[in-house]
Amino acid sequence: MRTYIGRQQAVSSEDFAELALGTPVELWLGVEGESDEERAAREDAARDILADQPDMPDDLIRIAAQVIEDNPDLFDVTPLTRPVRRRRAARKGVAA
Predict the structure, then answer these.
(1) What is d(CA 27, CA 42) in angstroms, rounded to the nearest whole number?
(2) Pseudo-torsion of CA 33, 38, 42, 47, nearest 10°?
(3) Vertex 30 angle, CA 18 and 23, to 5°
(4) Between vectors from CA 34 to CA 32 and to CA 36, what angle results, nearest 5°?
(5) Cα(29)–Cα(39) distance, integer angstroms
(6) Dihedral angle sign, alpha carbons of residues 54, 56, 59, 65
(7) Looking at CB atoms within 10 Å, which of 19, 22, 38, 81 has the fewest?
(8) What is the pLDDT along the chain (96 residues), one digit of tens a residue?
(9) What's the pTM?
């Protein structure tokens, strides 16, 4: 079975990540053994992309959270419960 995102075939998890990001994963994570100059150039490119797409980090976090929530069996995570917020007993004009 082949999987396509748009017109691109995704063969591996790296392909899916690259297609979701619109950039190679290495741009954000770096590569082993890169020089200081290569790292500086990569970070400059990443900053340029983020300047053009300021909502990108929030969008990616939202997408990742949704994937984890929809597929908990794929990840070794334990859902956290949200604390119950209690209303204050005394409000303006109401005695406790």
Answers:
(1) 6
(2) 130
(3) 25
(4) 140
(5) 10
(6) negative
(7) 81
(8) 676 667 777 777 777 777 777 888 888 889 999 999 999 999 999 999 999 999 988 888 887 788 778 877 777 767 677 777 777 655 555 555
(9) 0.55
